[in-house]
Here is the input.
Amino acid sequence: MSKFAVRVDAAVSALGSGGSAGLDENDFIDASRLVYDGVREIRRAVLMNRTSDDLDTDTEFEPVEDMTMETRSRSSAHTGEHGVDEYPDISGITNAREAMRKMTEEDKRKILQQVELFRREKMTFDNEVAKWDDAGNDIIMLAKHMCMIMLEMTDFTRGRGPLKTTMDVINAAKKISEAGTKLDKLTREIAEQCPESSTKQDLLAYLQRIALYCHQIQITSKVKADVQNISGELIVSGLDSATSLIQAAKNLMNAVVLTVKASYVASTKYTRQGTIASPIVVWRMKAPEKKPLIRPEKPEEVRAKVRRGSQKKQPSPIHALAEFQSPADNV
Here is the structure.
């Protein structure tokens, strides 16, 4: 950016003096391209990180009709309660997600504090779980699936995300419980092949936590936000249920992370004599993202005019030899 500013100042000064002989057009074009490339990369990064969950209103984003099941959330893909008016006696609010948006600023601030704690736990989840390849490892697949649903539930408490009605949240809680049951069954098979050790005891204790927090999420998801119209002002009271839901999701995510780590240790470090040789799950690190070996050619560079750059001409061999003098010439 500083290089571009210097070139602009030089161009303005040259034009003001009535001459442009000292301007280097190629140098000015290169400086402008650096600024353009930087702005384009920033815009691309923002668009790639921007999802429908980050939008504040439904009118900002129109969902694609042919969106596949892989790109949609499994928890919200099967809900069909979006057309039900949960608050028929209240005008301006039709579902629980809209009610969450009408909460007071103080309640929103308290919910945001709990969400920040959940995001910290999500960072731990990404460091410990997302590094594993889910191909051939159902434990990692179930853990990622549960994490995805928990993210949607926390977005719901802020009035965002694909979950709209209370029934959507209840169905999402049921899916978390089903995934937790499958995770419990699969992990217990690993524990059975593990000899008696502290790792086995810890693994079984973590499974009990998962069952407990799944049950808490099911209970808190059924609590509907209460909306009252007092003197034309909407009063939404759902802070306790929202914070309880976020805390249960955070605790569940922590239990899932501990279960994954203990399962890895139990299935790779401790093996009982005479057990089946084939592993229950395959623990393999996720391969890093592939990067191109060569820099891709930009479309605008293909259509750009080829300008001849300034380069130093190589002297001919005759002129180069003429620079040397023989000893006889010095005499």
Notes: The chain has a mean pLDDT of 76. The longest strand covers residues 226-230. The chain has two domains: 3-47, 96-285.
